[in-house]
């Protein structure tokens, strides 16, 4: 059956091109980022959830610090820290059900760890050992994505396929503000809205695409406003307010799971550390700007709320810090062990059925390794 033959597919007198397909007003984000901490809404927040978020934030901050130190010790090739963005990372992981999928970017290692990925395995890519050091299917966490925004169409495809199969699954895709300038972002948003795929896009607007500030990337009122052009809701949230990020993402996930389609969430946050350990951030931003954001630290905001309401005391703070130190010590000890690598693993997990060319390359490498092991007498001449 062709499109022309389908019932109601062809209309001799289509509506005028200027007529909006939907009312844009409900899709528009709020004028200011949504907040919970420090407002009346905080009193309604689940106290157990707030304490859980706090513990994960403290662990995440220590994890970032330890991973950054490992780069200086030569144990990691590179590490894109999410210090200052931990509220986005933790909320994204905790808001999902076990059956849902998380699609992280290269900066979202902490989100993967908070989702249950082993901390060492989460760093394997950044160590240069494997393309992905963990089983994506076991954790429902896609591989950390280094190319900007290419994980977004993958998330849409998985979410759309799950809906076609009747699976009750939501995909949450994370991306930075720089990634919204990529074509993959446009394609993913457009497909998601047209298909009404159960996917949530979380844009962590940390102010810079490496050294390029947001003002040089877009003239839109906010990144959340971009959602309207695709026909999906846009939400603007304070990315350092863990309770607010969790609430907004929870609403978006529930909306997607109920068949309401995708949502674009822009979390306004700040990258405290440099882009990576190879970047000198002092060349494009002032120290005063960084210090101003330290006063809006996600851990400080949540700790202030919890202690002010009598939900956290010094013992609780110390317990969270000790738990974080245990995590760091274990990570440090295990990362200081040289991994046992097998060069033949280069050919594993490439294709379900290896190609002829891949088999030839595998045979060639094995011959070279055998000759090297045999010494000078066995060397290929």
From TrEMBL:
Organism field: Streptomyces yaanensis
- From the Swiss-Prot or TrEMBL record, give the protein name: Pyruvate dehydrogenase (Acetyl-transferring) E1 component subunit alpha
Basic and acidic residues composition-biased segments: 1-10
Cofactor list: thiamine diphosphate
Domain Dehydrogenase E1 component per the UniProt entry, residue ranges: 64-339
The answer to whether keyword Oxidoreductase applies is yes
Q: Which InterPro entries match?
A: Alpha-ketoacid_DH_E1_comp (IPR050771), DH_E1 (IPR001017), PdhA/BkdA (IPR017596), THDP-binding (IPR029061)
- State the source organism's domain of life: Bacteria
Q: Which residues form the signal peptide?
A: none
Question: Does this entry carry the keyword DNA-binding?
Answer: no
What lineage, starting at the top, does this entry show? Answer: Bacteria, Bacillati, Actinomycetota, Actinomycetes, Kitasatosporales
Region (Disordered), start-end ranges: 1-25
């Amino acid at each position: 059956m062709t499109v022309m033959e389908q019932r109601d597919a062809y209309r001799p007198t289509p509506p005028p091109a200027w007529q909006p397909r939907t009312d844009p007003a409900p899709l528009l984000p709020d004028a200011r980022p949504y907040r919970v901490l420090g407002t009346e809404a905080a009193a309604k927040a689940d106290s157990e959830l707030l304490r859980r978020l706090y513990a994960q934030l403290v662990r995440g901050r220590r994890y970032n610090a330890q991973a950054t130190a490992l780069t200086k010790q030569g144990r990691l090739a590179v590490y894109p820290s999410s210090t200052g963005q931990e509220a986005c990372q933790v909320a994204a992981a905790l808001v999902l059900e076990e059956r849902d999928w998380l699609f992280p970017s290269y900066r979202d290692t902490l989100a993967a760890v908070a989702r249950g990925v082993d901390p060492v395995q989460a760093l394997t890519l950044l160590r240069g050992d494997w393309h992905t050091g963990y089983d994506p299917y076991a954790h429902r966490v896609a591989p950390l994505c280094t190319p900007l925004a290419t994980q977004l169409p993958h998330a849409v495809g998985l979410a759309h396929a799950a809906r076609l199969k009747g699976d009750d699954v939501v995909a949450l895709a994370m991306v930075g503000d720089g990634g919204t300038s990529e074509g993959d972002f446009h394609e993913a948003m457009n497909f998601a809205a047209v298909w009404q795929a159960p996917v949530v896009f979380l844009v962590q607007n940390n102010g810079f695409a490496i050294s390029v500030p947001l003002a040089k990337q877009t003239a839109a009122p906010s990144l959340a406003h971009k959602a309207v052009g695709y026909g999906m809701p846009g939400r603007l949230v304070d990315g350092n307010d863990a309770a607010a990020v969790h609430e907004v993402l929870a609403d978006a996930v529930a909306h997607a799971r109920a068949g309401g389609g995708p949502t674009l969430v822009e979390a306004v946050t700040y990258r405290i550390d440099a882009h990576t350990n190879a970047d000198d951030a002092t060349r494009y931003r002032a120290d005063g700007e960084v210090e101003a954001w330290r006063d809006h630290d996600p851990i400080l905001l949540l700790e202030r709320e919890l202690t002010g309401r009598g939900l956290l005391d010094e013992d609780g703070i110390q317990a969270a810090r000790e738990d974080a130190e245990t995590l760091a010590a274990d990570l440090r000890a295990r990362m200081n062990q040289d991994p046992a690598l097998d060069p033949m693993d280069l050919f594993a997990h490439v294709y379900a059925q290896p190609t002829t060319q891949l088999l030839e390359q595998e045979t060639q490498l094995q011959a070279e390794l055998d000759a090297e092991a045999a010494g000078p007498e066995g060397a290929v001449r």
